[in-house]
UniProtKB/TrEMBL annotation:
InterPro entries for the chain: Flavin_Rdtase-like_dom, Flavoredoxin, Split_barrel_FMN-bd
Keywords of the record: Flavoprotein
Protein's UniProt keywords contain Hydrolase: no
Cofactor dependency: FMN
Highest taxon of source: Eukaryota
Molecular-function GO terms, alphabetical: FMN binding
PANTHER family per the UniProt record, alphabetical: FLAVOREDOXIN, FLAVOREDOXIN-RELATED-RELATED
Family stated for the protein in its record: Belongs to the flavoredoxin family.
SUPFAM superfamilies: FMN-binding split barrel
Lineage, uppermost ranks: Eukaryota, Fungi, Dikarya, Ascomycota, Pezizomycotina
Domain Flavin reductase like: 14-138
Full protein name: Flavin reductase like domain-containing protein
Pfam families the UniProt entry points to: Flavin_Reduct
Keyword Flavoprotein belongs to the record: yes
Length: 211
């Protein structure tokens, strides 16, 4: 039996990233997010218009998409309910958010210079994607009073430093899917992945054909 439901938010499950952006004073802001998906060398980011990250992205057009492994769950939890924006919304105030200027320091993550963009990357993240904004789409335009409250940002990945131990031996451009353990966000809960179920038929197509 199916029942028609109306969840407040559709968090069916996606990987968490920690996004770095550059503040107006030149420091780097960090924010956990999970409304992301990948296609080719592009990533779509779903972000609330009000966050400091969104302000920074619209102004500078640059970011680093730091992927936490499932072992970094305590860092993601530590970053939750923080904002780099001093004048936060009444919603965030009521929800117990606090303003934190230096999130690297407060959650004990290590900043590392990027090569192709200005915001710092996170040393502890096994994958750090330097990226630039290619397009901005204002969402909810059909909903009165909520127009533009969320943005869908298309970013172009420019460079991908990745830890050697998640790569296939002898194949420097291939990630070993058994070794990469993303942290998943499902209806406000954090999960790891189970072991591989069975071979995928799509894998009969050489990955390089998608380049
Ligand atoms: C696991 C997790 C996933 C989140 N996913 C998103 C998301 O996809 N989009 C978004 O706008 N905020 C998301 N948030 C909330 C932001 O982290 C939050 O708005 C934060 O205050 C943004 O920081 P900033 O204001 O410094 O940019 C998520 C938070 C957590 C902990």
């Amino acid at each position: 039996m199916h029942q028609t439901i109306d969840p407040a938010i559709l968090y069916w499950g996606s990987a968490v990233i920690i996004i770095s952006t550059r503040n107006p004073d030149g420091t780097t802001n960090l924010a956990p997010m999970s409304s992301t998906w990948w296609l080719g060398q592009r990533c779509m980011l779903g972000l609330a218009a009000e966050s400091q990250t969104t302000f920074n992205l619209r102004r500078t057009k640059q970011c680093v998409l730091n992927l936490p492994s499932d072992t970094m769950i305590s860092k993601v939890n530590a970053l939750a309910k923080m904002t780099g924006r001093q004048d936060m919304s009444p919603f965030k105030t009521a929800a117990g958010y606090r303003y934190v200027k230096d999130k690297f320091k407060v959650v004990q993550l290590t900043p590392m210079s990027s090569e192709m963009v200005q915001p710092s990357r996170i040393l502890e993240s096994p994958v750090q994607m330097e990226a630039e904004v290619a397009a901005v789409n204002e969402m909810n335009r059909d909903e009165e009073g909520r127009e533009g409250s969320f943005l869908g940002l298309e970013v172009k990945v420019l460079r991908i430093p990745a830890e050697e131990n998640i790569l296939q031996v002898g194949e420097p451009n291939k990630v070993n899917a058994d070794r990469w353990r993303p942290l998943m966000h499902v209806f406000q809960h954090l999960y790891g992945l189970s072991a591989r179920l069975q071979p995928s038929r799509l894998a009969e197509i050489d990955e390089e054909k998608y380049r």
